[in-house]
């Protein structure tokens, strides 16, 4: 008889084939007498190669099966109906024994077999080969690492304890430990649809931690999404990779913090570029907002869509910070314990301090964009204004960078952006830079000079109670109601940009006051300081003007909302600790 399988002709004997294949029996019986020696098979799974395996088995020849051809042979045997009812010990039975005793017991063979099932659908699915592969792979990935005895691919760096460098091992014998994520790289060979089913099966078994699942998703995305680590490449199939990103988002573990914020932000960048659905974007935004303290400045630099005037998409970061604020207000302080343990000096507000520093760095970076509007800068700065942080140096750097790159902004805009900063929270180095900064409004320069001088005087006297009354009233947290008075200086004068001569005069006046306060420590010297303060500061730097400036700043909301009378005390305490080194300086220049 002649069997046509696709374009290949097989010249075979009827008896060996018909004795083992019920389907061939039916096909031969159905053919007419004129054409009884030739049959056509067009839809056999696995094609001519799989049919050849079945034909050889019918002739009693040795058949070589392996992970690459076993599924095709099994599907072809099912097509030919090579059941036990036709003959005992038929091909279907023997292949099933081989699968269960060898293939499904091997880690890498199970993965190879799963890969071959895709081209044999729906046969491989109906014969439960796919489900058996999934269960085999998931069971092995979920097993205790001490029981892993098979080979696997692992090229990532291992931690010291995983390399056997842990102190508990004897130097003479350091057995290499199996890492928890030993299975991650091998599964990267799977296409996304099969990978999704494997990970879902692993998660169902519930024996693999969320952080290992997160590491697996990260490794798979790096392998499968071109340019993912450096920004998405534009020359590829958008539909294919959009589906990949959406699937990865769907597979993310539900536990908070098990996936790095950096990975989530790179996923968000890819989702925006690939125009993924709103559901996936919103889910990523929600997760990132919860983990925003872990982010880095480079993670937040997401390019603006084509056609936008700005370089980076600031609206995304604005939404993330707002989401973080909302989440923080709804979360108990205990949820921030993991941050507190990393940075115990920050206390319970560690996450807010970290986010404030992050946004300060981000603002300094995007401020260099000449098309970046001031309104977005201020809005982002105001979103974190309620976050109490020990230093405003980062914010000052961002403001200075913006003023440098946007020299044409108006006086009112300079005043608006400088309202974000609290001069009392600038370090000595930042103060020295600020008093020489010709880009700042005169009001800000005077405030910086004054508070730096007050701190130096307080350090020299070691007690604010010995300071002159008019100066003591202007300390952060002090009462300045008694020192308010009208002056001849207009608001426009204070908002103007100071000249080099103005700054030099201010520095000279206050340097004289500092020298006087550092030269002696007795009562006579203190009274002399008070006289100097009363006479030399008369005019541009007289104490009443400072009082007016400070009270005006409070009335216009320049002080951060977090700077209450309670927080002033903590600021003073911190400043007192840091002032011994400042007392040794004899000038601001």
Automatic annotation (TrEMBL):
Pathways involved: Protein modification; protein ubiquitination
Annotated PROSITE patterns: NPH3
Keyword Metal-binding belongs to the record: no
Stretches assigned to the NPH3 domain: 181-455
Low complexity composition-biased segments: 560-570
Record region (Disordered): 462-499, 551-589
Record-linked Gene3D superfamilies: Potassium Channel Kv1.1, Chain A
UniProtKB keywords: Ubl conjugation pathway
GO biological process, one term: protein ubiquitination
Bilayer-spanning residue ranges: none
Family indicated by similarity: Belongs to the NPH3 family.
PANTHER family in UniProt: OS12G0117600 PROTEIN
The protein's name: NPH3 domain-containing protein
Organism: Gossypium barbadense (Sea Island cotton)
